[in-house]
Amino acid sequence: MKPETMEILQKNISLLTQNNMPEYEYIPQHYKPLPSLHTLHEIVELLRAIIFPGYFGEVIVNSNTYEFHLGVKIERLYILLKDQILNGLRFNSKENDNEQSVNMASEAALTFIDKIPELKRLLSTDIKATFDGDPAAHNYGEIIFCYPSIRAVFNHRVAHELLNLGVPVIPRVISELAHSETGIDIHPGAQIGEYFSIDHGTGIVIGETCIIGNHVRLYQGVTLGAIRIRMDENGLPLNIPRHPILEDNVVVYANASVLGRITIGKDSTIGGNVWITNSVPPGSKILQQKAIVSSFFDGLGI
Predict the structure, then answer these.
(1) Is 30-183 a domain of CATH 1.10.3130.10?
(2) Dihedral sign from CA coordinates of 64, 66, 68, 69
(3) Which of 20, 45, 161, 233 is the most buried (most CB within 10 A)?
(4) pLDDT digit string (tens) for 55-94?
(5) How many C-beta neighbours within 10 Å does residue 225 have?
(6) Which strands make up the sheet holding 245-246, listed edge to edge?
(7) Are 216 and 236 in contact (CB under 8 A)?
């Protein structure tokens, strides 16, 4: 290697190992084991195979051995999840590993596994709602196997449960896995009721403090977001309720933006392309202004 090449390499190594740049404080050093994106993806796929047997994972050819295969999967899920939760606890902690962290990780993994039957029940209601709202769907299996909306909602319900257990970092990773795969962005903190359905789904954003009731349907491009961010005395954003509440039986059509801590009353319909920053009472129908129709001749008016 030429001397001038070595000189350039060494110069940049020296620069990159220095920590005196004020901007570097935004990239904190981290020397502890991190949660593994590969392993978290495997955990999600294991959960799909556990909750939707036969659709994901290996093909089940003998129902008599199903319980054995399920047992193997759940045991592997526990081992992988326990280790990843421990790495998540390390991510947020400045202290060295201790027995308390190991016990917390084990307990959280077991508590999550105890929630899987309820997750399966909730997802069953989402599948039913999606099927009932889509004449193009031929059967429930098609929705489980093909629909990106179910993939995104699956990840959300898993991530939300882990967040409720106090697990750091990992819920956000699981949500972002679905976001990158489907274009549907649901923060793990959002509270979503039963029989939730998403039609098409691309471009949907659901913020952290959203509360969504039962039998709610969203179409593509819907944003349930914040209208402004309040700051504390240090100039940092306050994590306070700032996203909408959608009560039961609300439908929000394509590309609508519902912003701020407002309430959309039950049985309301929000039309496409509208911008809402105020609460609306139950039974409301909010539509955009009718388009103005004009005639143009020979390019005039364009």
Answers:
(1) yes
(2) positive
(3) 161
(4) 888 777 677 778 888 899 999 999 999 999 999 998 877 6
(5) 16
(6) 191-192, 211-212, 245-246, 263-264
(7) no
